[in-house]
Amino acid sequence: MSTIASSAPRRALRSLVPPLKHLVLLAIGLMMVAPFIWMVLTSFKPLSQLLTDPLSALPDPWIFTNWPDAWNALPFGRAYLNSFYITVLVVAGTLLTTSMAAYGFSRLPFKGSKVIFGIFLAMQMVPKQVTLVPFYFLMAKIGWVDSHLALIVPAILVNPFGVFLMRQFIASIPRELEEAALLDGASKVRVFFTLILPMAKAPISTLAILTYIAAWNDYFWPLLVSYTDSSRVLTVALAVFKSQSPQTGPDWAGLMAATLVAALPMLLLFAAFAKRIVNSIGFNGIK
Fold first, then answer.
1. What string of DSSP letters covers 195-216?
2. N or C, fewer C-beta in 10 Å, the chain?
3. Contact yes or no for 165/203 (Cβ under 8 A)
């Protein structure tokens, strides 16, 4: 009887654990969503309210002209188009170059390949800020400063993480499949495009999502190499919008509206591929 009586409180405590976990997760979720909600509400507030009562929850009154005013303040349409097509080209080019390099390191060994691959891995430990100045001088020497080529080509050709991710997966593919295709008369190029790439959909989707997010949100490098409206991307345009605000202070409502427009592709990407993004993070951690 004493054993049964002592186990009852334990069962009661264990029954409280799931609700407490859900409450903690709900609190953490609200903390993460709160800045986004505040940004949405701020985009509809008048500037006078932001200056006198910045902590107010709801706009008073609701100002819907902040969005078109912010959009027309700068050529955001051109910056949006630049960001979109540059990101698409960077993703497509990165997937092609990293996959081909990974296939070469994994299936086409050559003298010094392990040393070169080791150097490739060591590049991941070099902070990006260290290479900004040499890259800038290189772009200036080639004549690519203030052009889209300076934003596309380096991002496509320099991605050691992508090479490492793809190489690790391709190395796990049984060689017997490739040897059977070669015996049937397929070339290495055909084996790569018709056998290896279709089997590597998981790491390719992972790399595509991570590259898309990094390319769309990139700020510092585009800030260095793009000076005019024709070459600016959306992240740089937002910084220019903030710097061109009136002397009374930044137009926070317009800035929040423009920031929401800039974040829209990321929100749509997450809404469409939320499960794939979570799986990509898990796949990345396992590899």
1. IIHHHTHHHHHHHHHHHHHHHH
2. N
3. yes
